[in-house]
């Protein structure tokens, strides 16, 4: 099979021939239908802190069709269309059984989506309902990350919400904040490229960052936000979120900032700000996203701004490192 392979930090992914995967006992082989290009994959190929080894195939937002399965797999059949969670827990420990494979002591983060085929354990796969497309199936993972962030916030009805950063996670957060009952939702970003998409996902206002951003957000929300979601992951943004949030409000950090960051604790202490970190998602949340897709309530395909072939994928991946008008770009390895 062909795959887009990581070679070293600072070099584009390379399309290489690899051996076709063969399933272990509890595994399936998935013929990738779509795989989303994720900002965290960009991070992982830029920063040695993630420890990605040469020869690795990234890509953790994918859907596809089961084409082979191991002898112990009973829950899936050949031909099933599935969305695959990258969180591969052992499936047996208490943490896994409670639905939190992200925190399994023997768990690992799967990838492999930037290829024609990928291996996954049966317990990572959720069957897609008939009318859910493979495109939407590849968005289950980022929509689950956003759902988890909103669930961690303990946001309730009537809340004023600010989402900082209008990438796919920020816009997914807008959707779920609305579902959880947010009254007004403002989105800020450095550029207004995603304004239309933010409104489609449920935002009430889109504000381009400028020196008067706090005033503009407060006007749009009718007061300072109760909840601020940090969906950027760059130094300085958390401090900005602390400035935005109301007294005794909550800041949820979803952005992956791998550089040292500073904020003045007094600014947070003097308002009794609650700062909540959020990573990954629970397996029931992943299933909830699939159910919501089936209900037709969610239109995450509004996030998709392009689809590229595997051959064109390394170029598209490099282009996403710079500021771009793209939102979510998918890879179609069959194209
Ligand atoms: Zn991702
Ligand atoms: Zn486990």
Task: Describe this structure as you would to a colleague.
The chain is of the alpha/beta class and 335 residues long. The chain has helices at residues 39-44, 94-97, 134-137, 140-153, 168-179, 195-201, 213-221, 237-244, 265-269, 283-295, 313-319; strands spanning 2-5, 14-17, 27-36, 62-69, 81-84, 87-88, 108-109, 117-121, 125-127, 160-164, 184-189, 205-208, 227-230, 250-253, 274-277, 304-309, 328-332. The protein has 11 helices and 17 strands. Helix 11 (313-319) links the parallel strand 16 (304-309) and strand 17 (328-332). Helix 4 (140-153) crosses helix 5 (168-179) and helix 4 (140-153) crosses helix 10 (283-295). The two termini are 14 Å apart. Bound molecules: zinc ion (ZN) (2 copies). The site of one zinc ion has 9 residues, from helix 2.
SSE layout:
Blueprint: E1 2-5, E2 14-17, E3 27-36, H1 39-44, E4 62-69, E5 81-84, E6 87-88, H2 94-97, E7 108-109, E8 117-121, E9 125-127, H3 134-137, H4 140-153, E10 160-164, H5 168-179, E11 184-189, H6 195-201, E12 205-208, H7 213-221, E13 227-230, H8 237-244, E14 250-253, H9 265-269, E15 274-277, H10 283-295, E16 304-309, H11 313-319, E17 328-332
Parallel strand pairs: 10-11, 10-13, 11-12, 13-14, 14-15, 16-17
Antiparallel strand pairs: 1-2, 3-4, 3-8, 3-17, 4-5, 5-9, 6-7
Helix pairs in contact: 4-5, 4-10
Mean pLDDT: 96
Which spans have pLDDT < 50 for at least 5 consecutive residues?
none
CATH class of the largest domain: Alpha Beta
Helix segment tally: 11
Shape: globular
Given helix and strand content, the structural type is: alpha/beta
Strand content: 15-25%
* C-alpha end-to-end distance: 14 Å
CATH topology of the largest domain: the name is: Quinone Oxidoreductase, Chain A, domain 1
C-alpha-based Rg, rounded: 20 Å
Bound compounds, each kind once, are:
zinc ion
Number of strands: 17
CATH homologous superfamily placement of the largest domain: Medium-chain alcohol dehydrogenases, catalytic domain
What letter string, H or E per element, gives the SSE order? EEEHEEEHEEEHHEHEHEHEHEHEHEHE
**Largest β sheet strand count, sense and barrel closure:** 7 strands, mixed
């Amino acid at each position: 099979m062909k795959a887009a392979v990581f070679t070293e930090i600072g070099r584009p992914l390379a399309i290489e021939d690899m051996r076709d995967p063969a399933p272990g006992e509890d595994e399936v082989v998935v013929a990738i239908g779509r795989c989303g290009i994720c900002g965290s994959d960009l991070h992982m190929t830029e920063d040695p802190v993630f420890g990605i080894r040469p020869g690795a195939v990234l890509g953790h937002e994918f859907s596809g069709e089961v084409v082979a399965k191991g002898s112990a797999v009973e829950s899936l059949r050949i031909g099933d269309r599935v969305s695959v969670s990258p969180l591969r827990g052992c499936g047996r420990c208490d943490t896994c059984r409670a639905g939190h494979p992200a925190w399994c002591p023997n768990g690992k983060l799967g990838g492999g989506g930037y290829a024609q085929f990928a291996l996954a354990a049966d317990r990572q796969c959720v069957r897609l309902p008939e009318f859910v497309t493979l495109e939407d199936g590849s968005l289950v993972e980022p929509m689950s990350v956003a759902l988890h962030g909103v669930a961690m916030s303990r946001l309730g009805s009537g809340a004023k919400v600010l989402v900082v950063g209008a990438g796919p996670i920020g816009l997914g957060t807008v959707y779920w904040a609305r579902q959880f009952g947010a009254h007004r939702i403002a989105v800020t970003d450095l550029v207004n490229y995603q304004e239309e998409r933010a409104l489609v996902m449920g935002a009430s206002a889109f504000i381009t960052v400028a020196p008067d951003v706090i005033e503009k957000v407060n006007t749009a929300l009718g007061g300072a936000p109760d909840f601020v979601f940090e969906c950027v992951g760059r130094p300085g943004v958390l401090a900005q979120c602390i400035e935005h949030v109301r007294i005794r409000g909550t800041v949820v950090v979803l952005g992956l900032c791998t550089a040292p960051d500073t904020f003045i604790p007094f600014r947070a202490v003097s308002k009794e700000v609650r700062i909540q970190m959020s990573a990954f998602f629970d397996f029931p949340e992943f299933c909830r996203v699939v159910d919501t897709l089936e209900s037709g309530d969610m239109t995450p395909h509004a996030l998709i701004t392009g689809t590229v072939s595997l051959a064109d994928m390394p170029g598209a991946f490099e282009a996403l490192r710079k500021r771009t008008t793209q939102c979510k770009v998918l890879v179609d390895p069959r194209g």
